[in-house]
Design brief:
The protein has 455 residues and is an alpha/beta fold. Among the domains are: 90-149, Dna Ligase, domain 1, CATH 3.30.1490.300; 225-400, no CATH class. The protein has 15 helices and 15 strands. The strands form three sheets. The protein has a six-stranded mixed β-sheet with strand order 11-10-9-13-14-12, sandwiched between helices. Strands 3-2-1-4-8 form a five-stranded mixed β-sheet. The chain is globular, with a radius of gyration of 22 Å.
Amino acid sequence: MLGFVQNWFAPRANAIGVDFGSDCLRLAQVQFNGSEHKLIAAASADVPQHIRQNAAARIQFFIETTRELLVQGNFRGREAILALPAASMFIQHLRIAKMNEEETKKALPWEARGKLPIDPSQALLRHLIAGEVYQDQEPKNEVIVMAAAREFINGLLAAAAKAKLDVIGMNVEPKALVDCFTHVYRRKSDADVTSCYVDIGCVGTRAIIARGQQIFFARSVPIGGDHFSRAVAHAMRISLEEAKLLRIRLCAATPAMDENRQKNSIREGGDGAIASAAPTADSSFALLDAGLRASSNGEAASAAVSSGTGRMSQGENATSAEADSPSKNGSSTHDSSRQVEQACLEPLTKLVEELDLCRRYYEATFPNKPVDRLVFVGGEARQRSLCQHVARELGIAAQLGDPLVRMGRISDIGIESGIDRRQPQPSWAVALGLSLGPTLPSLNEVSPSRNEVRA
């Protein structure tokens, strides 16, 4: 009875964010108590390997598992916002004549025809106006179009209904990510920083470039964790599942940054008042030591990464010391780590090349707003060496994005949810961004039927 009364007078909870990825289903719910957001419910489940390529089996898994997670996670209510799965979404940049909102909606299906791998008339289209550009001395709108097959969307909504979810909106992952980190980067200095969010997932990577809530660029790159695992499996002559487990084990063996370095990073942050007011926001970001602070020279960038700017180099040295110890286990781990890194080099090089193309396109389009930092999110962001390599090759300062750094630390969420508050949680950015909202405040929908998609 007491619990019922407490829930009755408790602040209203946000909608549940539902992120159905290629390899994991995550549900998260936050609540704003007047001064800060608090994570009040979370639950997750891995998608079994044998059904990941089976659309019908995935939908059935979604229905059954969502029901279980709703009970297991003690979620409040059933209102939910779904993410449009990145693996089922296509992104295309278009340059079209400047026109009003209604005219843009009508023009997009025609403008996108032949430029998307699916028929726009059979797709749900959503768009963002990235900004104004000049082409052939004429002002045009740079438009980011995101599309998914209408049949897939309707199937997902039907599955959500069977799972007892009351879907009040659907958002695209790029917007959910930016919504999430808009709540994290709240200092005045952040308003002038252009971030490139690198969301490295199971089957692909998304690059989203934004400043504040404004998205300027988005693109999907078909290189993800599975490609790295396949490369390891081939090089070491082991099964794909063994390669995945090996990469996870090596990732878990990487020591976390020590508390003293975290405190030092806070003191180096600049504004003392802000740093003292929100120390967890800075200290929970694992800096990846790839900043070009004073020089655009590539060698200087490599030197900055190698030295770790005094932050991560200590952790790396500790790792090396442990690996070079006479311990048999340590030596074995060190050897395996070297083999895995060498095996991943080819797909990783391709990923870096694609990300560099993304940056060059963006900076050619918006030359006055160069990329200032990389923020790594997604399940593969746990692979520290992978993120370090990307940051070093691109020569850009980088961070491991943790969507929970500004959340209230007091929480009933246990490790069984898939969230360990002692570590950064880059894979939860989309689910939390969906719950944090706002739901599509500046995202526009192009859909002939309002009854098919609620937004």
